[in-house]
Design goal:
- With 339 residues, the protein is mainly α.
- The protein has a single domain (6-21, 40-192, 209-316), classed as Rhopdopsin 7-helix transmembrane proteins.
- The chain is built from ten helices and two strands, in the order H-H-H-H-H-E-E-H-H-H-H-H.
- It is globular and about 65 Å long.
- The protein starts with 10 loop residues before the first helix and ends with a helix.
Length: 339
Amino acid sequence: MSTPTNYHMSLAYFILNKLELNSNFYSCPENWTLSEADRIKRPYLGVYFMTSGSIYVTLYLLCFSAMLNRDLIRFPAFKIMISLALCDIPSICVNSLATGYFGWNGIYFCDYPRLIFFLGANGFGLWLGCSLACITLAVCRISELNPDLNIRWVFRPPFIYFLMLLFFLAPFYGVFLTKPVIFRPEFMSWFFDPGTGTSLSDPSAYYNINQPVNNAILTIITLSLYTYLVSYLIRKGTHLESAQFLRTQRQVILQAAIICFFHSITSFVYVYMQFFYSPEWFIVAAQIGWQICTGSISVIYLTLNPTIRSSVRKMVCPARFQQDNRVSYVSDANWERQF
């Protein structure tokens, strides 16, 4: 194929081509086999990713169930958080559970080409959705915190529903209409080039311009938004001395620092390692960063969000342990609306 396009290397092409991968780009040797001795296995990293991924998924599902409460879902921030969860949870299944299992067993693309291609398409597409939702959530928090910006109308019906539609159009494009990432056990990570060595095309055909563009935009905007958020809270804190505000200030700054750091660093590192030589530890760190970007949100919710923490406690703890720790939805909702 002289002029490859995203479509010819996409999941949509795979589906419409009777579940057959494009042999010009994703071919494997006939009767391909690899002995156990020749496989590169990463048992320790495999255990880490599967174990931590299972914990992240369990915690996130609990948080997701709490966010579906009808008393909470009417708030714009929770609508965005639910959209983010719908991208994050399946992402963890790819970047943690599947990654750990494949690494543990030393599974290569040619072992299960269709499965790995499908998971890689979802992994990349869902990352686009996570990126957009994270940026929108930051803007929503800023709009609630600083009413002088006059952008709250964007997060009210019916405009909020157009935003939520974008949260699904972005991953739809990434999943079905562009090139997927492919797992490679020798790096314990996902690359656009499957590394089979049998492609009829130039290796540059696997470059996906959507990734550097998305990650560059994510890094710049995320850094800018959370820098503004933190600086605004610091300025406001010099005029307000209430204990409630100081507690809120510390929580939001910590949450901003965690989200900003991992998203920005992971976005940059994952682009770098796709185009330039990177040592093994660097690549593994990038993979862990991707996992933390999607999975640690649940930990942030449980530690810094009293509304979700209270709801999850009511779901998992016996009633006798809840008597002294009840938090009303009304007070929590008002607290959430402050940021």
